[in-house]
Specification:
It contains ten helices and ten strands. By secondary structure, the protein is of the alpha/beta class.
Length: about 270
């Protein structure tokens, strides 16, 4: 997925997201500071760094879960107009979360309703965008369960009966069934066994490419960033210290901190 050819194609489009000078403080403590970048249609951007680097704060600001101390996030609506997310009403932002956006949490329980069936979890997202026909809802849920490698006979089972990997795949189906344009992912393979991670990454890479999604992925795992992303931001102490095409940054890092990150992976 990575490479200069992809970025050349993407750069000919207008940005889907424009991030300008985002800073977030928690009292005196810095979450992130003066972060700026664009995300283009069909582009996957990885934000990497150690725990406490500010990457999760940045993701929560982008997804409007947190309001920035200063700075602006602008989003291109389906009618091509650019809107400042924090100038929109809370109701308008909720509509975006139900229609244009998805959010894949590290803990699937945060992104699923654990007490209802797998099929209902997927169907609810379609109902939020206007589908009401039971037959079509169930058919779409069945189709998406198959796409994320969950057997059709589990459609009426509750997620609490699923393994961690199955829950994560169900959360992905719930997010993607309504055809969002932008998906936020917070450590999507965190806490899973290595073999389960590999299957999930392969699935994510295929789905993102097939659907032409834009995505912002937060991860501490450079292998995840390399496999899934076109471009990468490296964060440390709340600031972006290096950015560029994923393969270029990981193969020839300029910042000494990035060099240490890459070296630590190679030594494992």
């Amino acid at each position: 997925m990575t490479g200069a050819t992809d970025i050349s194609r993407l750069a000919s489009d207008e940005p889907l997201v424009e991030v300008a000078g985002i800073t977030k403080y928690y009292g005196e403590r810095r979450g992130c500071e003066d972060v700026s970048f664009d995300v283009y249609p069909g582009e996957v951007l990885a934000v990497v760094g150690e725990s406490g680097s500010g990457k999760s704060t940045l993701l929560n600001v982008l997804s409007t879960a947190l309001e920035p101390t200063t700075g602006e996030v602008r989003y291109r609506l389906r009618d091509s107009t650019m809107r400042s997310l924090f100038a929109m009403s809370e109701a308008e932002r909720r509509v975006l979360m139900r229609t244009d956006w998805g959010f894949v949490h590290q803990d699937p329980a945060q992104g699923l309703r654990m007490s209802v069936s797998a099929g209902a979890n997927v169907g609810e997202r379609l109902m939020a965008v206007g589908e009401r026909h039971y037959g079509r809802l169930r058919a779409a849920a069945t189709d998406w369960l198959a796409r994320v490698e969950i057997a059709a006979d589990r459609i009426d089972d509750a997620p609490r009966t699923f393994s961690g990997g199955m829950r994560q795949r169900l959360q992905i189906a719930r997010n993607l069934v309504s055809g969002p344009r932008l998906v936020f992912m917070d450590e999507p393979t965190g806490g899973l066994d290595v073999s389960v991670q590999a299957r999930l990454l392969d699935l994510l890479r295929t789905l993102v490419a097939d659907l032409g999604l834009s995505a912002v992925i937060v991860t501490h795992d450079l292998a995840v960033a390399r496999l899934l992303s076109h471009r990468i931001l490296v964060m440390r102490d709340g600031r972006v210290i290096e950015s560029g095409l994923t393969d270029q940054v990981l193969d020839d890092p300029a910042a000494s901190y990035t060099q240490l990150l890459v070296a630590s992976v190679l030594q494992v």
